[in-house]
């Protein structure tokens, strides 16, 4: 969640700077959002294709009906290069 807030804050800061300098955004907002959507979809296609090649079942992060979600230690879900100490 922290990364989302940082990303939002950075975007707001850039927007304010653009407004103060009276500079238009490099791309029309709708085109920029469609491009971002394409990036997000593209990121999801690669794992799906890899899973299909090795015949792994497709999983989702949504809880099953009646299942409760609990918070856990996420340190084991991080990539080895991102782990500290």
UniProtKB/TrEMBL annotation:
Polar residues biased stretches: 59-74
Keywords: Membrane, Transmembrane, Transmembrane helix
Stretches for region Disordered: 59-85
Keyword Cell wall biogenesis/degradation: no
Statement: the UniProt record of this protein carries the keyword Signal: no
InterPro entries, per the entry: DUF1427, XapX_domain
Transmembrane segments: 29-49
Biased composition (Basic and acidic residues): 75-85
Protein name: DUF1427 family protein
Organism encoding this protein: Rhizobium wuzhouense
